[in-house]
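S., here's the first fold you wanted:
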Amino acid sequence: MRLLLDEMYAPAIAAELRARGHDVISANDAGHALPTGASDADVLAAAQRDERTPVTENVRDYRPLESALLADGSHHAGLVYTTNRQFPRGDPATMGRLVHALDALLRAAPDLRDGSIFLMRADG
C-alpha cells in the first residue's frame, strides 16, 4: 500500500514513515505535483492516478467523492480516514501516535481497493 497524506498532516509524518521503509508522500511535500490548497477532488484524482491510498480527516468531503467514483465504475486504492478525536491536532503526542498507527496499518497491508477504513490509535 502506498499512501498520500492529505494537507492537514505534517510532512514529517510522511518522512518518518519513509524512514521506516514505507512508500508515503505528503500533499505538503516540496516538489509534489499538487499545488497548495488543491481541492479534495484533485487530491483524490492524483491518488487514484498514482495508485495511492489517501489518508485524510475530511470524511465529509471524501465520502461523496468516493461514492461518485465507484458509481461511475472507477476504482481507487482505498481511503484511510482519521478523526481529530483519535488523533487530536493540539496534542504533542499525536504525530508519534499517527506514525505508529499508520506503520502498523502498512505492515498489516490490508487490501483496501475500493474500500475505506477509520484508523484507530494503536495504543488503545
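And the second, which I think is the more interesting of the pair:
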Amino acid sequence: MAGYSNAAKDAAVNSIRALLTSNIGWVSMHTADPGTTGASEATGTSYARGSSTFPAASGGTGSVGSQASVAMRTGTATAATHWGLWTASSAGTWVTGGALTVTEDFSTAGGTMQFTPTINATG
C-alpha cells in the first residue's frame, strides 16, 4: 500500500487538532496512577493545570504540538509520576493520562513542568 500524501496527513492531523483544541486543552500532574478517573491529581499552594494548544500541521510531517506549562508549587515534597488531560482548567471531564518517563520531584521550592503534546500521522 502506498503512503499518504503530505496534504492528506495535514488534513488528518488538523481534524484531530480541531477536536482537541475545542474539547481537550488542560494538562494535569498526578502523584500516583490516575487510573480511568483522573485520581491523585497534585494539589498545593500554586498548583494549576496547564493550558495546551495544538497548532496546524504543516509540510506533511504529521506532527503538531506546543508546550503546556503546569505549575507545581506545593507546601511539602511532591513527586509527580503521571500526567493527565482534561476538558477544563478545574473540574471538567477526565480524558486520558499516563506515566512520566521519569518521576519529577518538586520540593517546597516548587517548579514548573513543560509538556509538548504531539499528534502524529504516519503512512
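Why I say that: The chain has one domain: 6-115. The chain is about 15% helix and 30% strand.

Talk tomorrow,
H.
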